[in-house]
Write a structure and sequence with these properties.
single chain; 402 residues; Growth Hormone, Chain: A; 18 helices; globular
Length: 402
């Protein structure tokens, strides 16, 4: 990969930051939809969390096709394609309101998940290899600020059109047809943007084996690389706890009969932005990526335990504090797992993206526990997730082929 000037890197990060914002918005609509569909389609809490399942199951089913497409057409064209798929998903959601079909609504979210898979694969790999590997977490943290502000902003924007106190499924049409049109325009704009095609060190190699100078011997398959597939499991738990904290807090506030429950996602978002800012200022000058991951997992374990034992009216603000704990999980796990993959970088990124299915599985378990017991007890599902992430930080991320 040719050396890029600092000015160019900043320009490219601004462009990619806009992509992160769109990705955050498309995921953020789920947090608002969970309490909305409970009323619109008369669903139980656990059933409403199928919204997460519909969205994130696409990350597994489309991960391999995403890798193939990414390798064939490159990063920029993949980003453009993802926006046209996003437009299709938003259109299906709007159309589902006309038939009042929960199944079509879920299918629209699944199509959004396909677009999110390709976009996540493209932009996270792009940002990771855009500069020094040691500062990858810093760059992803900067992108994460745009992502999470847009994620929370989705609830704010949808609240202008959808009233949780007076739910009407027909109100979906105007905002989502409009958003679909905007997605098409953004896709076209990206196609004509100055965003260059880049590659990781060794990615363009014709060799079918990994670089012996990196690993001490040669490997011919990404599944022979422990820190990668253990990283995919870490992504599973990372996204699971992140989506639980962001996606459940509005629903939790509604269950506690708090005023304006649709705004509580902002508390978690502000927690994540604070954590991102810490990452930007401390990594890699004062903290390594691995140390940042250790600190965040320990904070997550302690915060979750406290959530389980305090009064509910206090615990909801501790759910927001989980945003701080979750902030540096993705920015550290992704580059640690993707490091030293050479020509396997695109395939490795797709393996990691498959781990995002955790955003479907863990929230569904959370919803089941919330129905069976209560929301506060349901947050216990986060503890084993943080424990595995601590293992990955201390041991799993250091494992290399022998």
């Amino acid at each position: 990969m040719k050396t890029l000037s600092t000015a160019n890197v900043r320009l490219y990060l601004i462009i990619i930051g806009c992509m992160y914002a769109v990705l955050g918005f498309s995921i953020g609509i789920n947090a608002y939809f969970i309490p909305f569909v409970q009323e619109a389609f008369t669903l139980k809490t656990a059933t409403s969390y199928l919204i997460m399942t519909a969205t994130f199951s696409a990350y597994v089913l489309f991960a391999i096709p995403s890798a193939i497409l990414l390798k064939k057409i490159g990063y920029r064209n993949s980003i453009c394609t993802s926006f046209f798929i996003l437009a299709s998903g938003f259109t299906l959601i709007a159309f589902s309101s006309q038939s009042a079909s929960f199944e079509l609504f879920l299918f629209g979210l699944f199509v959004l998940g396909i677009a999110q898979t390709l976009l996540t694969d493209s932009i996270n790999s792009y940002v990771t290899i855009l500069g020094s590997p040691e500062s990858a977490a810093k760059r992803i943290s900067i992108m994460g600020i745009a992502d999470k502000l847009a994620l929370a902003g989705a609830s704010f924007i949808l609240a202008l059109f959808l009233d949780l106190k007076n739910v009407d499924i027909n109100h979906l049409k105007i905002p989502f047809y409009s958003i679909a049109a905007i997605a098409v325009l953004v896709g076209v704009a990206i196609y004509f943007s100055p965003l260059p095609e880049i590659s990781a060190p060794g990615e363009d190699s014709e060799s079918s084996e990994l670089d012996a100078s990196v690993y001490g011997n040669t490997k011919s398959s990404i599944f022979q690389i422990p820190h990668l597939y253990l990283g995919a499991i870490a992504i599973f738990f990372d996204v699971g706890v992140e989506i639980i904290a962001l996606g459940s807090i509005n629903d939790y506030a509604k269950s506690l009969n708090l005023k304006h429950p649709e705004h509580y996602v902002w508390y978690t978002t502000f927690g994540m932005v604070f954590g991102y800012l810490c990452g930007v200022s401390l990594i890699p000058k004062r903290l390594s990526q691995r140390q940042g991951l250790v600190i965040c997992t320990l904070l997550g374990i302690v915060t979750t335990i406290v959530i389980l034992v305090v009064e509910p009216i206090i615990s909801i603000y501790l759910v927001a504090a989980l945003g701080v704990a979750n902030s540096l999980l993705w920015p550290t796990v992704f580059p640690l797992a993707l490091r030293d993959l050479g020509r396997f970088t695109k395939k490795g990124a797709s393996v990691l993206v498959m781990g995002i299915i955790g955003g479907a599985v863990l929230p569904l378990i959370f919803g089941y526990l919330a129905d069976l017991y209560e929301h506060q007890i349901a947050y216990s599902v986060c503890i084993p997730a943080y424990l595995y992430l601590l293992f990955y930080a201390l041991i799993g991320s250091k494992l290399r082929p022998h």
